[in-house]
Write the structure tokens for this entry.
Amino acid sequence: SAKYFSGTGVYSTSLTTPKLSAGETACLRFEAVHEIARVTFAGKPVATTWAAPYEACLHGPLPESGVLEVAVTNLWHNRRVGDAVDPATKQTKSNITLPSPDEPLLPSGLKGGVEWRIYRGQP
């Protein structure tokens, strides 16, 4: 079940870049990332972010548009809780004791909005 997923999920969308003046840098700011995100744009690596502010800055001449991909990897915790809830469908093996089936799940993936931030020079 997706509820107990642990691993990497990829978000993908077509994106139009902002028009920049000389000396400006465009950054995508993510409201929240759980736990680490690898950002690519137009097939090129942009940034890896895991701490606030969650930003990925695009440098150099930008294409007018391209595909934005954000690969977000979460923690193992949610999968381990899922294994505790239904041991018959257990997907992990470890010498670590399973958490309680009542253990709260941790947030995972991208949460909240994404916006462009334009900076003069380097952020």
Observations:
- The mean pLDDT is 95.
- Residues 2-113 form a domain with the Jelly Rolls fold (CATH 2.60.120.260).
- DSSP finds one helix and seven strands in the chain.
